[in-house]
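Lab notes, practical 5.
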Amino acid sequence: MPDLFEGFGELESETDRPPKRKAQDVSRPSYLKYYETGKFTDVIVLVGESAEEFNLHRVVLAAQSDYFDTALKESFEEGKSRKITIPDIESDIFRIIVQYLYTNTLEFADKDPAWDTIAALYRAADYLLMPALKVEISKLICIILEDYKYAGHGLAVEGLANVFEHATISDWDNIRFCTDAVPWCLSNDCADYLKRLIREGKDVSVLATVFLESVLKVEWQLDENGSFTR
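Output from the prediction step:
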């Protein structure tokens, strides 16, 4: 194979050589400065009951949320007016989502976010059709579970039930990711706890099915009475 650099000569000494260039950071860039300064914003999102105003960038929203990608099309009124109203998500939760959209990181006002906050964030990610964010939230849940002495105690199960209430089959992998992340202690009879939640009207059937399959390594079916059968 011919030497492509043949004939270009050699540098006489190390001092003649150009300085080495650092490897370029090719990770996802942060667009947060454009959000903070409001530069180039081209869409307004009104969030929560108070309709708090967020001035954002269409391309950042549409690239990561199928909800925004659809809503911002010119064929829809929101796309024409460049204004979207989302009353069903709290502004504090949406602010966390904005941080994620612009930096690809999850940041919370509290160092240890409450289960209610995590649950509201997961539901908002589901509403906005952001599967990547749901995966990041699931990773956070795994870290939280690892902090418990016994992951099977009531607080952990209650937290998972809060987050994954109304979960569907599309959430199966995220739930399984969480339940597989830590060893579970079944001394507190988690199965009975989940059955009680179902009998109380909580929609945790998908969580319960995945949980029992993950923890007990058997396939379970949920009958109409809220009982589990192999």
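Observations recorded by the TA: Residues 131-146 form the longest helix (16 residues). The chain has eleven helices and five strands.
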